User: What shape does this take?
Amino acid sequence: MLRLMEMGLVPGASVRVRKRAPFRGPLELWVGGYILSIRSNEARLLGVTPEPERLESTVVVGPAPALRDSQRTA
Amino acid sequence: MSVVALAGNPNCGKTSVFNRLTGLNQKVGNYPGVTVERRSGRAVIGGGPVEIVDLPGTYSLIAQSRDEAIAFEVLAGLGREAAPDLVVVVLDATNLLRNLYLALSILELGRPAVVALNMMDLARERGVRIDVEALSEGLGMPVVPIVARAGEGLDDLRAAIAGALLAPPPRAQRTWQVDPPLEALIARVRTALPEDHRDDGVAVWTLATVAANPSGAPDPTNTTNTTDPTDPTDRPWPLRLHPGGLASAGAPGATQGASGPAAMPPEPARPEGAPLRKGAEGGKRTNPLASSSSALSALPAPLAPAGQEALRGLEALDGVAAAQAIIEARYRRAREIVAAAERSPAEGAPTRTDRIDAVLLHPVAGILVFLATMAVVFQSIFAWAEPLMTLIEEGVGLVQGGVRSVLPEGALADLFADGVAGGVGNVVVFVPQIAFLFLFIALLEDSGYLARAAFISDRMMASVGLHGRAFVPLLSGFACAVPAIMASRTIESPRDRLVTILVTPLVSCSARLPVYTLLIATLFSSEETVLGIFSVGGLLMLAMYLLSFAVTVAVAFVLKRTLLKSPTPPLVLELPPYRMPEVTSVLGRVYDRCRVFVKDAGTIILACSMVLWALLYFPTEAPSSSSLEAQQAALQARTTGEGALNGSEAPGAPSLELEALEKEAEAARVQASVAGRLGRALEPVFEPLGYDWKMVISILASFAAREVFVSTLGLVYGIGDDADEESLSLREKLRREVDPVTGKPVYTPLVGLSLMVFFVIALQCMSTLAAIRRETGSWRWPAFAFAYTAVLAWLGAFTVYQGGRLLGFT
Assistant: This one.
């Protein structure tokens, strides 16, 4: 999910979940300066460490599909 | 004349800058061969004329969509036009980090540039302080702070542009680095570039684009076909590589690299930077390379050898990890620049956008606001446009009357009145709906709500496999498919856009209403009720809308899984801060849309109108020129006992009789016309649906617009073309029509149902086809849409009619 990285979800970035669309719809994230909306199955691809004292999480691993991609067999 | 390109993120205020610089001196077209809009305009800067090109707003240049590919090609001078003399990179000061990511990728391409730091007012409001000097130093380019909406700083920007055009700033260098193996690969890709583009920035782009498009690889989340025969334009973007092109046998990258960039295997020994000839690695992989080279032609042609070099290098390195490494390195650099140039307060008090979102994205209130907004949009095209459309139709009527009073009676007058004026009317009549729909879309988009609407409706659309952005076009389809298809432009993914365009004609538009109304009123008693409260007519109407909805969803579902197979597009949607829309920008876009429609789709509609008119008009040997002949023909018709002619019952009213005679003659003429003969010829095709040739003529004629079905029936039955769905005489005629062989009524409730089902599904509308042609850039898709709906409509009507007969209905 290179697109997510290009939108600023790179390792080290801080994200916070702001809201959720009705009926288990997409998430609304605060990504260092702006609001980004992604679906939960895409959000699941992000590895994060929670930082409860700041009510934020930090992206630690690059988005996961990269890993899956490289594990593929031809 | 110097060319200045404007580049930047979506929502960075680029369009405001463009409007400020060019005034109203703009033109909109498409980039050659693709359906990406090209906006350009003239401005006078530094005493000379300058052409300003507004590039598509993108978050990245790595080509994963057409917009990005186009932006890159223009910036690198690889498109069909020469590279711009200067690039103005527009940055949103409130969101510096992500904007700098794109700015760095643009500057790396080495064009002379000026950076416009926009939205300084909002940044100040939020307490963000930006050191312009430090920013300029970090980027190596002049930076001008501006507030484009208020026109603040625009003179400084013009001065900076003029200065940079006279004395270009030194070209920017890449200011970040990746791991040595990847750096080595970048160097190798660079040497494979054509001489006039042998440039580090272009090499990085080529590598990142090849690495980011690893399709052909069995990505678990992506089951897309590897080749892309269904691409709506002739150019296969995004890049599709041959299966196994990346992960071909023996490539270490295929099995390794699971631990990320840090574990990238070292390059096989090869002198750094040494040019690598095609096939230098021996016969090991000649096959995959040969086949992937055809896929590589999707890169701008001059970059194909470099793309191949990148592909070869990526067999040893992991492709996605390589792209990630480049993105991360660029973000690291962007963060350094931000750290040096920006002082922002710790996130504090909720902003205005937070407060508005608390309501508009509230689980309950948000949905209510969403429904209300959509109701207003829908109402505007459904009802508010109506008076204007009536006015246009009346105007067309006046013109037709005028033409007839000037020209002598005959084919020429008919041609100009009915063919030309009528055809122009067929085009102009759509303008109010298009204007209203785009007025609302522009307002919603500029205020920031359109993205929220997509956010709210995404859950529902995703269940069909579409993006939240497909909601507004599909809803608009209930009023009219033409503006709805044009509105699909807001959908980014080309395949999803195409699916939306292809199913929009199935949404029951308002032109189908007269057809439903006539058939229901004619064939079903209005007194009959179900459960004592629901009238049969109302329930049938509801059933038609439900059927339309079901077919739309089903076809979208099937298309997304077969022909246009693609995963549900990821939702990566920025929710921009709320802003007050700018009047000039909104009205400008409404005007653009209307103009594009009249110019592009209008010409097709006009041509089709005239062809249809001719089909219904020629040959003219049927008696219509002289009233004497008409009378004779009518007398003949009467003596053969066909039809119950009212005129014969009132011999004392010769003028009435004459009018009736003329209408009868008109009916004879239509029946003898090319379309009439076509109707007879096609009768066997429609017979299993229960239709006779008179209905077939009307179906053919309704291709001009569905409601024409009703007036053509009026013509064919000699009631005159002013018949409408409310006209009692037409209903009477239809009820009385009997089959000449069996003597049974032709119009039974079952036939009516079969006709309605046919009209729910069939794409009986040349304007819609013209709109699809306009938006997809070829005749392939309108032809496909017409064919698939025709087959489905036939099958649907067949099932209803034959099924009904089997169940014992007549």
